[in-house]
Amino acid sequence: MSLASADALPGEFTFTDADFEALARLARSEFGLSLASSKKPLVYSRLARRLRARGLATFHDYMALLDRAEEAAERLELVSALTTNVTSFFREKHHFETLRTALIPELAAQKRIRIWSAGCSSGQEPFSIAMTLLHALPPGARDMRILATDIDPAILRKARAGRYPAEECETVPAEFRSRWLRPTPCEPELVEMGPELKALISFAELNLICDWPFAGPFDAIFCRNVAIYFDQETQQRLWSRFAEKLRAGGFLFIGHSERLAGPALPGFGTAGVTTYRKRAIPGPAQPT
Ligand SMILES: C[S@@+](CC[C@H](N)C(=O)[O-])C[C@H]1O[C@@H](n2cnc3c(N)ncnc32)[C@H](O)[C@@H]1O
After folding, report:
1. CA dihedral 162, 166, 172, 174 (to 10 degrees)
2. Catalytic (active site) residue 157
3. Among 196, 206, 255, 276, which has the highest number of CB atoms less than 10 A from its own CB?
4. Which segments of 13-162 are extended strands (E)?
């Protein structure tokens, strides 16, 4: 490690505090990611394989590479390395219970139903929504769609394929499993989501901190375990933008360690654990 400066971490690659700060600035401005200086060792270990893959010796060189316009794919590799894709079917089960008992009875009277899974990872979240909806509401003449977005094109390819190891599907209720999940003939260890489920979902690449090229309004937005990576300002802007995209009475479901705060808060009432409902008329402003 002879190249390392005084503030570089011990290891294979030189990583100075200045490199870390430049990386944190880029991660924040392009992706909303919050990297406190305490995360420097974690960032080093997560990105070391990218430097190895690109044949680089220093984080300074990696930053120079990320700066090039043609390195958009590497910038996505950066997000992938700094966040996780951990997800599962019917994760945080109480949200699906609320969807079933509080929202679906209202949706039954609607001709148009729109739900957004924002930060859908490999698809288990939108497929869980699709099963809950289809179980209660046969599509029939209804215009029913789930939009499922993520920043990571590789994870979206998995989501679109809709094939999962059988043991991952154990959290799908047995009744739903027998109705919509099917074996994949060529890959016996995998289970495939049925065509009725796939037909409900549109998968699309979207960086949540950029423009959203769709109008809404949505009846519900699931954005769970995504904002946790963002700094407070980015989180609060996101809640306000979700409020604009929800209809009055629409639900916002967020992750177990996330909290709604900031200017959007008076516009929502609580409707369960990490569950919020957009008010028709905003309540009194909250102290920040
Ligand atoms: C931990 S997964 C959450 C999956 C699912 N929502 C759940 O709770 O099970 C976080 C996802 O957020 C995505 N993500 C991170 N930053 C993002 C951004 N700026 N815009 C959109 N998606 C982002 C990641 O690619 C990852 O798939």
Report:
1. 120
2. no
3. 276
4. 112-118, 143-150
Residue 149 counted as an annotated binding residue: no
Residues of the chain with CATH 1.10.155.10: 17-82
258 lines ligand 1 (CB under 6 A): no
Domain 17-82 fold is Chemotaxis Receptor Methyltransferase Cher; domain 1 (1.10.155)
Return the ligand 1 atom nearest residue 117 CA. 6
228 Cβ below 6 A of ligand 1: no
For the Cβ of 78 lying below 6 angstroms from any atom of ligand 1, the answer is no
Per-residue pLDDT of the chain (288 residues; tens, 9 = 90+): 233 444 555 678 999 999 999 999 999 999 989 999 999 999 999 999 999 999 999 999 999 999 999 999 999 999 989 989 999 999 999 999 999 999 999 999 999 999 999 999 999 999 999 999 999 998 777 899 999 999 999 999 999 999 999 999 999 999 999 999 999 988 889 999 999 999 999 999 999 999 999 988 999 999 999 999 999 999 999 999 999 999 999 999 999 999 999 999 999 999 999 999 999 887 776 655
Taking each continuous run of H as one helix and of E as one strand, the counts in the chain are 11, 10
CB 202, CB 193: distance < 8 Å: no
CATH T-level fold of 93-278: Rossmann fold (3.40.50)
Annotated catalytic residue: which of 19, 50, 114, 150? Answer: 150
Q: Is the CB of 151 under 6 A from ligand 1?
A: yes
